[in-house]
Amino acid sequence: MPTVHNEAKKENIAKTVIMPGDPLRAKYIAENFLDDYKLVNGVRAMYAYTGFYKGKKVSVMAHGMGNASAGIYSYELFKFYDVDNIIRIGSAGTINPDVKIRSVALTRKTYSSSSYAKVLDNDDSNVMESSSYLNDKIIKTAKEKNINLTLLDVYNSDAYYNETENIREIHEKYGCSLIEMETFALFKNAKYLHKNASCILTVSNSLLTKEELSSLDRQNGFNEMIELALDTSLLL
Question: Is 3.40.50.1580 the CATH classification of the domain at 10-233?
Answer without folding.
Answer: yes
